[in-house]
Amino acid sequence: MIRGAIFDVDGVLLNSMPVWENLGELYLNSLGKEAERGLGDILFAMSLEEGADYLISRYGLQKTREEIVEDLTREVRDFYAEKVPLKEGVRQFLYELNEKKIPMVIATSGDRKNAEAALKRLKVLNYFQAVFTCSEIGSGKNQPDIYLAAALQLDTEPSDTWVFEDAFHAIRTAKSAGFKTAAVYDSSNDKDLAQIWNTADIYLPEFADFNIFWKRACEMK
Question: Which residues of 123-159 are buried (b: 16+ CB within 10 A; e: fewer)?
Fold first, then answer.
């Protein structure tokens, strides 16, 4: 059964992971510097502040930490506002859920303004009742708080609510909290693909066929 749906943003609705994987390289290129191999992996686990410190130390940038954080934030903001695309099939999938009268909300670990700017530009923000962010909730997706808050908004039980996520840790958290989980493929999570496959209730390599998802979701208890 499906009475409500909770969607992650990055890697699920938006093909936005490349900007995070390549942000440092793009920034250094704009300064006329060549990035080292694997810089994206080095920076991915860091906060923006930590990443700024690394870039200053490694590349001798004549900028303060605050200036670099501001520059990187602007790069990301512009990408969401002007460039990031929907993942293939998302628009039709949301339309079909809406036609079935299934209420939907956003649950993202990203920035509210970036998510809303992109989804509004792409004309899909109106499908969602609300946007929840980890920073506003006060805990990340290793804890179920954001999904429980979203379910309260939807007025649905976790067992009747589907969570669409691409990352293994988020899928595991949602499922452990009693939600049904649909894993959406994103290449950024290839290293966890086996665990994702074995944990999620349904695996979606793409949003291509809504009817197959709907049939399987409705058959599940």
Answer: ebeebbeebbbbeebeeebeebbbbbbbbebbebebe
Beta strand 104-108 with 161-165 is unpaired
d(Cα 174, Cα 84) in Å, to the nearest integer? 26
Instruction: Provide, for the chain, the percentages of residues in helix, strand and coil under a 3-state DSSP scheme, each rounded to the nearest 5.
Output: 55, 15, 30
Model-level pTM? 0.87
Q: Are 88 and 207 in contact (CB under 8 A)?
A: yes
**Contact present, 182 and 199 (Cβ < 8 Å):** no
Tens-place pLDDT, residues 118-162: 999 999 999 999 999 988 998 889 899 999 999 999 999 999 999
Residue 51 — φ and ψ, nearest 5°?
Answer: -65, -40
Say which residue the tokens 């379910």 belong to: 151
Q: Is the distance from CB of 162 to CB of 5 less than 8 angstroms?
A: yes
Tell me if 162 sits within 8 A of 182, measured CB to CB.
yes
107 contacts 132 by C-beta, under 8 angstroms: yes
Confidence of residue 45 (pLDDT cuts 50, 70, 90): low
Q: Which residue has the tokens 């899909």?
A: 124
